[in-house]
Design goal:
277 residues, 24% helix, single chain, alpha+beta
């Protein structure tokens, strides 16, 4: 069994992520650590061939905030840098989706449901930045989790972000996508298997219908958005976990305009490391 560090030697006492066959049964658990952090264990991300199992992830119980208590919004590059400067990681789309599903599964615990509701209350918490880009091409695109400077040059900033993380580029076939659609419709359409493969690689969920369960709990539909004229464009786009009054949005279609949103950091670490920061 191969073990690889998710963060390099700069971060001591780092938990390791285990690459396992995709049939490996995984159960998540959510518990309280302190007033700032929850511990989520057993998270796993499906990338098309394997599941990556994280022994433990510390999830911030709140988004970054200004002194007046309002959420502090960041452009993508600045969001990644803010987390790194505070010894955190901006989670990728696949990790964040798995966190949301784990919180949903633990919703009977009040502390888990409190954080889960932040993904529902769009007035207070806005949408969430994620550490993922999508490169769209005519036939073959790629989901890029933990992009590096070369991927983010459109923001014209160089500070070697995500250097200590494993950049993952997952290829997908661009065929029969259509425009943005209801996730329920996509999953029920047998002609959309290439679209479903993309959704799995973007969200890290072998069964993306888990997000539909979250949406139903919020009394919202779930939509997946792709660029206009998908299959006819060559462009790098931002990905977002978004929400409003009527639906959740899994987005891989935003340009690098001055769009800002909330930041929720995570730490891949054991308890003693978090205590000593």
């Amino acid at each position: 069994m191969k073990l690889t560090n998710i963060i390099d030697e700069e971060y001591e006492d780092v938990s390791e992520r285990i690459v396992l066959p995709c049939s490996f049964p995984v159960r998540t658990s959510v518990s309280e650590f302190d007033e700032n952090w929850l511990i989520v264990e057993g998270l796993h991300s499906f990338d098309g061939s394997v599941e990556e199992v994280f022994s433990s992830v510390f999830v911030a119980r709140d988004v970054a905030r200004k002194k007046n208590g309002e959420p502090e919004n960041f452009m993508r590059y600045d969001a990644i840098k803010y987390c790194e400067d505070n010894k955190m990681v901006l989670p990728s789309m696949d990790l964040l989706c798995n966190i949301v599903v784990a919180l949903y599964d633990a919703k009977d615990k009040s502390f888990a449901n409190t954080v889960l509701q932040q993904f529902n209350d769009y007035r207070s918490y806005n949408s969430h930045n994620v550490n993922t880009l999508v490169y769209w091409n005519n036939e073959v695109g790629s989901v890029i989790h933990y992009p590096v400077d070369a991927d983010l040059l459109s923001e014209n900033k160089i500070s070697k972000v995500n250097e200590s993380l494993n950049r993952r580029e997952l290829l997908f076939t661009v065929k029969n996508f259509g425009g943005g659609s209801l996730l329920t419709d996509i999953l029920q359409d047998s002609s959309k298997h290439f679209f479903i493969d993309y959704i799995r690689k973007l969200t890290g969920l072998f069964d993306p219908s888990q997000l539909i369960s979250v949406g139903e709990y919020f009394q919202k539909s779930v939509h997946v958005w792709v660029p206009n004229k998908v299959g006819q464009v060559q462009t790098m786009r931002l990905s977002w976990f978004s929400h409003n009054s009527t639906h959740l949005d899994i987005i891989g279609a935003y340009g690098f305009e001055a769009i800002t949103d909330a930041v929720r950091g995570v730490r891949f670490s054991n308890a003693s490391y978090v205590c000593n920061i």
